[in-house]
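Cross-posting from the chemistry board since nobody answered there.

I work mostly on the small-molecule side, so proteins are not my area. We synthesized S-adenosylmethionine and want a rough idea of how it might sit in this target. Sequence and SMILES are below. Is it possible to get a predicted 3D structure of the two together?
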Amino acid sequence: MKENDIYKVKIESFDINGYGVTHIDSRVIFVMGAVVDEEVLIEIVNVHKKYAFAKIKEIIKTSNYRLESPCPYYEFCGGCDMMHISYETECDIKTKRVSQTLRQFDYELLPIIKADKIYGYRNKVMVPFCKDIDDDILYGFYRKDSHDIVSIDNCLISDDLTNKILNFICKYLNLFHISIYDETSHTGLFKEVMIRHTKLNEYMVVLVTTSNHDFTSLVNYLTDEFKEIKSIFLNINERKTNVVLSNQYILLYGSNTITEDILGLKFNVSPSSFMQVNNSQCEKLYSKAIELAKLDKTMNVIDAYCGMGSITLNIAKHVNKVYGIEIVEDAIANANNNKKLNNISNAEFILGACEDKIKELSHINNIDVIFFDPPRKGCDKSFLDTVIEMKIPKIVYISCNIATCARDIKILEDNGYKLIKAEPVDLFPRTLHVETIALLTRKN
Ligand SMILES: C[S@@+](CC[C@H](N)C(=O)[O-])C[C@H]1O[C@@H](n2cnc3c(N)ncnc32)[C@H](O)[C@@H]1O
């Protein structure tokens, strides 16, 4: 078998990344975009000893599992991965991904918590701008595994108003011939736009540029047109890096924060603070995590990687005392402000890295439960070591990357803990990503 070879195959199953799987001469073939039960003509794109990747040349017999994608950009855009299959099938693939990744443990896998809304759910987008060969300014999302921008004017997983604001900004940039950043030559001004909104219908717009610039007219046009915009920032990022936002924010309009409601509590959120991108699923996630922890009013709890305190303050309602630890200064400022906003007195927020700050809490020997919700890379090993030393009876691990979560669970299982239950939660419909809650307890 070699690259560019063509084969006619029948797709046998889906793998955990949503690829169609077939076999040729005992080699496993992963076919991008192929659907189980389908007969397809495939072209081999990448060959390894025991497996190969292929793309579809032609669908000979369509499977009943295939859906017509409602998004015209789906074939090219790297934003979504599951629009060609039903939502049921998507949830089965996500469940399989969690169960396969955790297969070394003996535990109970609970059914995936599905989303009620699979389109229009995202409350945050980050959109790069560029110029096409005719010098027209456009925006979009990156093609899969590439830095080419696929031009779009309507993203189905974002909401309508976000799409309208992006269209509006793009028209403005074209009309006023604003200089656009070119990442190859590292020249030009305008890089990206971030838009975040809340279910209280408050919108925040962040314009990302390489240097300061007078955007007074754009700000005036935007705020005249869209009354929902409560905050506009300029973020100046001169660096040639994949990290889009720098620490340099300048408030151009309105308020420093917008306000979200999560399970009846109010949260003011700054542009640099983390907020889950799907509010209604986030509420289900937090409720389930709190339910699994079986909290009561006698308990003392740590919420590690707490962001703006959204889980922490929801935990506070059920316990004696909760400590939140977070590394981003603005997020801790939001968290302290959110504590006041909701009249909560039994939460304490600590600024710093969990791996350092957990040590300061290790003298409190009656911590009953610790929640972790780390970024995709998972927990720092020294943080886990301290949790193990503290012998905290119960851990609720919320993860957006089941691979690093499994790695961390292995460390915990080797050091006195047992995985009891895991529950996938679909926070990101139509994409490959899945959130998981894992409950661990100390043996004995
Ligand atoms: C997935 S978010 C979860 C935030 C919060 N629990 C929520 O649901 O909104 C992870 C958070 O961990 C923070 N973080 C990343 N590395 C950290 C570290 N070493 N120590 C403390 N916080 C960290 C990030 O700034 C981010 O707010």
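Reply from a structural biologist on the board:
Welcome over. Reading the output above for you: The mean pLDDT is 96. The longest helix spans residues 160-175. Happy to explain the token format if needed.
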